[in-house]
């Protein structure tokens, strides 16, 4: 039966993707792919049993997506809609190139009359779904932004999940264009705040690489930007999420650090300092919550195939590094209720937890 369930706008990613690989130009591209999401990656890459609750439209595009969902081994829970042959409703479409090097992909959407935006509370039998062996429920900010009813559906699902003893998590993904018709940032703040009241797991992954230069050459703004995102943003997450984690039977927080916190490599000062500060921040949080149900740990992924790594090490062969998918599985493991350790560092390359020690004598 399903062990992980995702509530999503479309079954895999954001629907159909028209991919521009750079040759030929975007306007000449004819290749279409169905994009993976969390549930598909967990099933296909990690062999996990997963399911997805979403909208499905009965027309050829929907049939294509449904076939790919089955191919990934993801169990679907569909609210089905009939297409009128002209206006929809439709499955959402994303148009994207693949980016190149440190350049991020250029992405734009067609979400006109999207079926997922029509989803509302009452569309799914959560009691039956969560009684089928689900252990983890996940949704995100993009789905929540599609309409007033989709955010209400997320809350309904999370409340049902917690009542069934299922772990809940939420990706605080903010898209300005999607929230603008509903009231922009103010509306997003209110809605997302109501949703995260039901969350059990916090992943602190905010981070930028910052400049590579001698400390004496770093501009004050560049220094402040790194500290604001790598340290202060995570402190703000702790401030706002701590009451929610305390209310959970098994609140878990995992903060993503780096070997830079300990190696102090030359010319990477702002990043080094920010990661050392992040680890001190997380360890302090762990010490302050040691007598509660909250468990706080730090995760060092080591060199990983990411855009940030490519920007910092442009001469490095990215294919020599492990992909994000390999690393992510271990982050999930640290968020499970079975984790009893707190204030420790998990090193992905070493494959184990480490305790912190005072510096040794030379």
The CATH class name of the domain at 200-362 reads Alpha Beta
Q: What would you say the CATH architecture of the domain at 200-362 is?
A: 3-Layer(aba) Sandwich
Neighbour order of strands in the largest sheet: 5-4-1-8-9
What is the assigned CATH homologous superfamily of the domain at 200-362?
NAD(P)-binding Rossmann-like Domain
- The computed structural class is alpha/beta
Segments where pLDDT lies below 50 for 5+ residues? 11-26
The coarse overall form would be: globular
| Helical residue percent band | 25-40%
In CATH terms, what is the fold-level topology of the domain at 200-362? Rossmann fold
Q: Count the strands?
A: 14
List keywords for this structure.
single chain; Rossmann fold; 12 helices; 362 residues; alpha/beta; globular; five-stranded parallel sheet
Notes on the protein architecture:
The protein has a domain at 200-362: NAD(P)-binding Rossmann-like Domain (Rossmann fold), CATH 3.40.50. The longest helix is centred in the middle third of the chain and has 28 residues, at 220-247. Helix 5 (148-163) runs parallel beside helix 7 (184-196) and helix 8 packs parallel to helix 10. It is of the alpha/beta class and 362 residues long. 36% of the residues lie in helices and 19% in strands. The protein has helices spanning 38-46, 60-71, 126-130, 141-144, 148-163, 176-179, 184-196, 220-247, 260-263, 269-288, 307-312, 324-334, and strands at residues 4-7, 16-20, 32-34, 50-58, 74-82, 93-97, 107-110, 136-140, 167-171, 201-204, 252-256, 295-300, 345-347, 352-354. Strands 5-4-1-8-9 form a 5-stranded parallel β-sheet, sandwiched between helices. A 5-stranded mixed β-sheet has the order 10-11-12-13-14, covered by helices on one side. It has 12 helices and 14 strands.
């Amino acid at each position: 039966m399903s062990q992980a369930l995702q509530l999503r706008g479309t079954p895999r990613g954001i629907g159909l993707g028209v991919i521009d690989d750079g040759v030929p130009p975007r306007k000449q591209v004819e290749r279409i792919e169905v994009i993976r999401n969390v549930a598909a990656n967990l099933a296909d890459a990690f062999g996990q049993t997963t399911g997805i609750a979403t909208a499905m439209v009965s027309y050829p595009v929907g049939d294509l997506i449904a076939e790919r969902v089955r191919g990934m081994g993801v169990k679907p829970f569909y609210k089905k809609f009939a297409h009128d042959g002209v206006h929809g409703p439709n499955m959402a479409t994303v148009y994207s190139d693949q980016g190149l090097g440190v350049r991020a992909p250029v992405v734009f959407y067609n979400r006109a009359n999207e079926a997922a935006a029509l989803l509302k509370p009452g569309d799914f039998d959560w009691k039956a779904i969560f009684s089928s062996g689900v252990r983890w429920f996940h949704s995100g900010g993009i789905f929540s932004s599609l309409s007033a009813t989709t955010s209400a559906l997320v809350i309904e699902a999370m409340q049902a999940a917690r009542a069934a003893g299922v772990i809940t998590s939420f990706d605080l993904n903010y898209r300005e264009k999607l929230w603008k018709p509903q009231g922009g940032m103010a509306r997003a703040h209110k809605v997302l705040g109501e949703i995260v009241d039901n969350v059990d797991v916090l992943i602190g992954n905010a981070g930028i690489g910052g400049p590579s230069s001698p400390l004496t050459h770093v501009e004050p703004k560049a220094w402040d930007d790194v500290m604001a995102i790598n340290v202060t943003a995570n402190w703000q997450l702790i401030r706002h999420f701590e009451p929610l984690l305390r209310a959970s039977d098994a609140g878990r927080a995992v903060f993503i650090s780096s070997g830079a916190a300990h190696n102090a490599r030359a010319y990477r000062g702002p990043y080094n300092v920010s990661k050392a500060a992040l680890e001190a921040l997380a360890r302090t949080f762990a010490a302050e919550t040691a007598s509660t149900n909250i468990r706080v740990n730090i995760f060092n992924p080591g060199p990983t195939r990411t855009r940030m790594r490519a920007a910092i090490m442009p001469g490095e062969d990215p294919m020599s590094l492990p992909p994000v998918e390999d690393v992510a599985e271990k982050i999930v493991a640290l968020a499970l209720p079975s984790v009893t350790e707190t204030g420790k560092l998990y090193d992905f390359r070493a494959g184990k937890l480490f305790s912190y020690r005072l510096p040794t004598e030379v």
